[in-house]
Design goal:
The protein is of the alpha/beta class. It is built from 13 helices and twelve strands.
Length: 279
C-alpha cells in the first residue's frame, strides 16, 4: 500500500521535484541513469507505466486518491503519494488540471538508433526542433498516423520534457525514438546509418526542385525517412543537399509554409498512403 502524505504548503521540500527543479536538473546530465521526468494526467502516466517506466512518487489532488487514481496507484507498489488541494497544484502546473495527478518517474535507458530502424518502414527525423510543444505534437501525429519511429538530433528539445510529454498525450512512450549522436551523429553518420538500413530520405524543404508531398515516388518507397527542420529556418542546406528527395506541401493564399508540427501531420498522412491503398 502506498504511503499517502498530505501536503499543505507549496514550499514543502517534497514538492521540489515537481515545482522547483528545472528540466536540466531533472535530466541530471552528470548521472543520466538517475534522471527523472514528470508525467501529467492518468492517461499519460498509464502509458508510461505500460512502456515500463519506473514510478518514484505521485502528487495527486486529494479527492482522486481513493477514486479515479486508486487503480493506477495499485500498479505502483509502495511509493510515496503526496496529496494536495487544487490551490497547491495550480501553483505547480500554472493551470487547473481536469484530473489532477502528476508522477515523477525514472528516465528509461536510451534506445539505440538501430533498434528504432530495425523492421521500420517509415520514420521521422527531427533536426534542431527546439520547441517542446512542437516535439510533443510531432510525436502525437507520429503515433496517430502510424509512423514507426522518430530520430532526433542532440540539439532538439527532449521528448521527455514535461511539456513535450503532456502535449504528446503520452505517445512519447508508444513511438520508438532515439538520439542521433555518437556513432550515428547527424548529419553525415546519421544519414549513412539510414542508408545502411535501406532508407531513402525526404527533406521537407522549399527549394526549386521540391516535389509535392503526394508524389507517387514517395508512396512506393519501401523505407522512407522524412526529415523535418527547425522552426523558422528549416533544414540546414547541407542536409537538404544530401537527401534523396526534396519535398514540399503545396500552399494556397500566399502562405509559404506550415508550422513544423502541422507539416509533420500532413507528411505522415501522405507517407502512409502506400499501406492504406494496399489494404
Amino acid at each position: 500500500m502506498s504511503d499517502v502524505i498530505r501536503i499543505t504548503e507549496f514550499s514543502a521540500p517534497e514538492l521540489d521535484v515537481y515545482a522547483r527543479l528545472r528540466e536540466t536538473q531533472l535530466l541530471n546530465c552528470r548521472a543520466p541513469e538517475r534522471g527523472i521526468f514528470i508525467a501529467e494526467s492518468p492517461r499519460v502516466i498509464e502509458r508510461a507505466l505500460d512502456a515500463g517506466c519506473e514510478p518514484l512518487s505521485f502528487l495527486s489532488e486529494e479527492r482522486y486518491v481513493q477514486k479515479e487514481a486508486k487503480e493506477l496507484l495499485a500498479r505502483c507498489g509502495d511509493i510515496p503519494v503526496y496529496t494536495a488541494g487544487m490551490d497547491v497544484l495550480v501553483q505547480i502546473t500554472g493551470y487547473k488540471l481536469t484530473r489532477g495527478m502528476l508522477c515523477a518517474m525514472r528516465r528509461p535507458e536510451k534506445t539505440p538508433v538501430e533498434e528504432v530502424l530495425r523492421g521500420a518502414g517509415r520514420v521521422a527525423v527531427l533536426e534542431h526542433v527546439v520547441n517542446p510543444t512542437n516535439v510533443g505534437a510531432i510525436f502525437r501525429s507520429a503515433a496517430a498516423l502510424n509512423m514507426d519511429g522518430v530520430l532526433l538530433t542532440p540539439d532538439c528539445s527532449d521528448p521527455l520534457y514535461r511539456r513535450s510529454v503532456r502535449v504528446s498525450m503520452g505517445t512519447v512512450f508508444q513511438v520508438p525514438w532515439a538520439w542521433l549522436d555518437g556513432e550515428d551523429a547527424w548529419p553525415d553518420r546519421g544519414l549513412r546509418t539510414l542508408g545502411r538500413f535501406g532508407f531513402r530520405t525526404a527533406a521537407m524543404a522549399l527549394t526549386e526542385d521540391s516535389a509535392p508531398i503526394d508524389d507517387v515516388r514517395l508512396r512506393t518507397e519501401e523505407k522512407l525517412a522524412v526529415i523535418l527542420g527547425t522552426e523558422g529556418d528549416g533544414l540546414a542546406a547541407g542536409t537538404i543537399a544530401d537527401c534523396d528527395y526534396r519535398v514540399r506541401i503545396p500552399m494556397a493564399h500566399g502562405v509559404d509554409s506550415l508550422n513544423v508540427a502541422a507539416a509533420s501531420a500532413v507528411a505522415f498522412w501522405e507517407l502512409r498512403k502506400r499501406e492504406r491503398e494496399e489494404l
